[in-house]
Design brief:
heterodimer, A: 255 residues, alpha+beta, five-stranded mixed β-sheet, 7 helices, 11 strands, 22% strand, B: 642 residues, de novo design (two linked rop proteins), FAD/NAD(P)-binding domain, six-stranded antiparallel β-sheet, five-stranded parallel β-sheet, 22 strands, 38% helix, globular
């Protein structure tokens, strides 16, 4: 266990905990756009910055999602300086995507309702890349990637429809609604930046008949579960599968 | 106008050079240095802001959007549409970007912009009122990083690591292969200057850069194996043929020769490599044992260069089968001498020249093992290897694998001074090599013409010598004998100069090696030399770097009859000057995810055969390790008189 102080609150957390998780542990709210517990630190939004004073080191600003706690650390999670910087960062994001509801809400939470900055080219999303991360780290497919259409800097996320299995994980994690997924007429439609990016056929549950996953997802799971003969032929939706075999199979399907 | 010479770190201003030109001013990783007081500081600032914006990776918000905002505001000021409030806005924004960004582009660059505005505010204010005259300066902007600078071939390391992190393994390999045709080889045996320079070393251990390189090379190999056998290398091309008439001869199919051939073949030249051995790879093939570098990796990667249309003629030795003059007579328009350093240095101890059975130089020992000539090895159970470098370690570990059971390494200094790679030393210890430190050989002990031991004396460390290491001094009367059936000397290599002979028009140095200029060319136009042949026994990646430079220069020479430095040489030379001036940050950083451990074959099992010792990363391990990269990219903009 590691002892540290966050905003004058003492806390004790296991080795390997991030400062962001430690703060949540003691009820201190740190705003973030791109941090998800299931994924490795994304480090993109920089809204979760804190001031950190580690023993023997200079006081510095660091992203709390990517900062591992150390014994004797003192963290200011919401100092005036940090709040001012967070406002500047959200103002920048607001300048790049002024009409996005999620960004506006996040900004309002930080007391920002307008931006003093102007940029020549607006961004279609926050470009944080959690969608790319989820697809790579959790699904093991890597169908999404950054594109730099206007130069070296990433300015869009693109989807390789061939690789995409249509699991929908990207849409679930996207913090700004740039990716959406919709099932209709036995097909799953994935939209990126408001345009259809992929359409994949859905399969139906052999028990209840409801469409529940794409064929590609079922194939992927078959590949991953190849040692588990029980699940090879049956195509059950999660609800029906649970009724029949309550043992959790998601662990066996992990990459 | 900035009417003084200054630098932002407050030391004496020293003149800087970019190639042949004087640098009027330079902005580099957050610092500014002005040597010409007439420099247009506003123009320089705007130019730098453009470079920063254009090189931002776009991942983190403050850097991606903030650098756009700053560049736009400075453009307004330069165009005479700015206001003073813009200046304050930039300074405040620069502070936020500098403190909140993820990588060094965002963390260092805005600091320099804010510095220029704060210290030369009058220049900016007057620019707002009257747009400044565009000066007669030529600006050059480029990116550097500590790892890139330390790498002899200057690979774009943060870029290929970033690609691994994002799961783009082929793109990552393409970044490496744009400069280095043998990534799987270098990814196994490089001495890793990049990892020494890695800034993460200040926190929780440098990145495993070498193993990440190996990982992407291995992924490509595995994909090739999966694909149909007809699709050849990862470049996806079938055998190519030359498109240009001029033919180039390269002497030596080692890392330098092959890299040079690769560059020239891609440019469309017909290249013939003359190799004295029956095997490609030079010292990488016959000097590095298979348990560190499996032969099929080396052959496979050199094979890719052959598929570009490069011809390798084996068993062709300079001085025996051809000469430099005969190559010229055969119509080769350029020649690259890259034949390495294959002759052993003598220990100068009694019995070395007596022709005893059981005494063998290290390079010969390794060459016979690596070429499968085990019959030519002296027989025995115990071996004593003299030396402290990687060749000595290779000999002593190889000895176990060819049947010796008692392996001794004799080194006249301590483990601290050993030039061998610490990882290699550790692996040798794990395999139970017996180390004899502070011991120097005196005499090879033989009975009836056959080696039975090595007489040594004990040493102590005295004053430091020219290399900075403490000189070993003999302790009188401390002689003793290490019993050994075989004694190997591995204290260094030399160039075989006899085979070149005298080449008309080429100057030879006192050792008989051809003298080359800064472009690695001899006094004879079109005749180049590089690799270990020029530098003495050095790193594999260093040889590749020579090969690449010579390849580029030969291409330019053949196309335009011009020999000149490449822009990247000038860039790295400028960074080298800056590194000696700008105070380095060496303090510790907060620790996070520790450096990944490398899995090995168990010592007791691996030491009886030539299986590869180190295991590679899995995709998950590689992505996790790549995620540790701090991306210490720094942007440099310099202004020179046009």
């Amino acid at each position: 266990m590691v002892k540290l102080v966050i905003d004058a609150k003492k806390c004790e957390v296991p080795v390997g905990t991030t400062a962001l998780a430690a703060a949540r542990e003691v009820g201190i709210v740190i705003p973030t756009l791109c941090s998800l517990r299931a994924l490795r630190p994304n480090k993109a939004c920089r809204l979760c910055i804190v001031e950190v004073q580690a023993p023997g080191l200079e006081k510095m600003v660091a992203a709390s999602c990517d900062l591992l706690v150390a014994e004797g650390m003192e963290i200011s999670a919401n100092s005036a300086k940090i709040q001012k910087m967070r406002r500047a960062i959200i103002q920048l994001l607001l300048a790049a995507m002024p009409d996005n509801i999620a960004v506006k809400e996040l900004a309002a939470g930080l007391g920002v309702f307008a931006t003093p900055f102007a940029v020549a080219k607006r961004d279609a999303c926050a470009l944080c890349g959690v969608c790319i991360q989820a697809c790579q780290e959790k699904i093991g497919v890597s169908a999404l990637s950054y594109a730099a259409q206007g130069g070296k800097a990433a300015d869009a996320v693109i989807l390789d429809a061939e690789r995409c299995v249509g699991c929908g994980a990207c849409a679930n994690v996207c913090p700004v609604g740039a990716l959406t997924v919709q099932d209709k007429n036995d097909k799953r439609e994935l939209s990126l930046y408001g345009e259809t990016a992929n359409v994949i056929d859905l399969v139906k549950c052999q028990v209840c008949g409801a469409p529940f996953a794409t064929e590609k997802v079922v194939d992927l799971l078959r590949q991953r579960l190849k040692k588990d003969a029980l699940t090879l032929d049956a195509v059950y939706c999660p609800a029906c599968a649970r009724e029949r075999n309550p043992a959790p199979c998601f662990e066996r399907a992990a990459i | 106008m900035a009417n003084s010479v200054f630098n932002s770190w407050g030391s004496e201003v020293k003149p800087l050079r970019y190639g042949a030109r004087d640098v009027a001013a330079v902005v580099a990783w957050g610092e500014v240095s002005v040597t010409d007081p007439n420099i247009d500081i506003v123009g320089l600032c705007a130019e730098y802001a453009h470079a920063v914006r254009d090189n931002s990776c776009g991942h983190c918000i403050p850097c991606r959007v903030g650098t756009q905002v700053i560049a736009d505001l400075l453009d307004k000021i330069v165009a005479g549409q700015g206001s003073e409030s813009h200046l304050d806005q930039i300074i405040e924004l620069a502070d936020t970007i500098g403190q909140a960004s993820f990588c060094d582009i965002g963390q260092t660059s805005p600091k320099a912009i804010a510095y220029m505005i704060e210290h030369f505010r009058a220049d900016f204010v007057s620019a707002i009122k009257t747009p400044p005259q565009k000066g007669s300066y030529a600006y050059k902007s480029f990116v550097t990083a500590p790892c890139m600078q330390a790498c002899p071939i200057h690979l774009n390391i943060p870029q290929y690591i970033e690609d691994i992190k994002r799961g783009r393994f082929q793109e990552s390999l393409d970044v490496i292969k744009s400069k280095l045709p043998i990534p799987g080889v270098v990814g196994r045996v490089c001495v890793r200057p990049c990892e020494t320079a890695c800034q993460r070393g200040r926190a929780d251990g440098a990145l495993q850069i070498k193993h990440l390189k190996r990982f992407v090379a291995d992924v490509a190999l595995a994909r090739q194996a999966e694909a149909k056998p007809s699709s050849c290398c990862s470049c996806g091309a079938a055998q190519k043929s030359a498109t240009k008439d001029a033919r180039v001869a390269i002497i030596g199919a080692g890392p330098a020769g092959v890299t040079c051939a690769n560059v020239l073949a891609k440019e469309g030249y017909k290249v013939t490599i003359f190799e004295m051995l029956p095997e490609p790879g030079g010292m990488a093939a016959v000097g590095i044992p298979d348990y560190r570098l499996p032969r099929e990796i080396l052959r496979g990667e050199i094979g890719e260069t052959e598929k570009l249309g490069v011809e390798i003629q084996y068993n062709k030795a300079l001085g025996k089968d051809f000469t430099i003059e005969s190559l010229k007579a055969d119509g080769f328009k350029a020649i690259f001498v890259a034949m390495g350093c294959h002759t052993f240095k003598k220990m100068r101890v009694e019995g070395e020249d007596a022709g005893y059975y059981g005494f063998v130089p290290g390079v010969t020992f390794l060459r016979n093992v690596n070429l499968g000539r085990l019959d030519e090895l002296p027989k025995g159970k115990s071996i004593a290897v003299v030396g402290g470098g990687n060749v000595a370690i290779d000999c002593v570990r190889t000895a176990f694998r060819v049947g010796f059971t008692d392996a001794n390494l004799v080194y006249r200094r301590t483990i601290k001074e050993m030039p061998a790679d610490p990882v290699e030393i550790h692996d040798a210890e794990a395999e139970e090599v017996k180390f004899h430190f502070l011991v120097a050989p005196k005499r090879i002990v033989a009975e009836n013409g056959k080696v039975v031991g090595l007489e040594c004396s004990k040493m102590e460390l005295g004053e430091p010598d020219a290399s900075g290491r403490r000189r070993p001094v003999e302790i009188p009367g401390s002689e003793y004998v290490i019993p050994a059936d075989v004694v190997v000397s591995a204290i260094g290599q030399e160039v075989d100069t006899a085979c070149t002979g005298a080449v008309p028009g080429v100057e030879l140095d006192k050792w008989g090696i051809m003298v080359v200029d800064e472009n690695l060319m001899t006094a004879v136009p079109g005749l180049f030399a590089g690799g270990d042949y020029v530098s003495g026994p050095d790193t594999l990646i260093g040889a590749c770097a020579h090969g690449r430079l010579v390849g580029k220069k030969i291409a330019k020479y053949l196309a335009e009859n011009v020999i000149e430095k490449l822009p990247e040489e000038d860039e790295f030379a400028l960074v080298k000057q800056l590194q000696t001036m700008i105070p380095a940050k060496n303090g510790p950083l907060p620790a996070g995810v520790a450096r990944a451990a490398i899995a090995h074959e168990p010592a007791a099992e691996r030491k009886v055969d030539f299986r590869e010792v180190d295991k590679g990363f899995t995709a998950t391990e590689a992505a996790r390790e790549a995620d540790r990269c701090l991306r210490c990219y720094r942007i440099v903009t310099c202004a020179c008189q046009a």
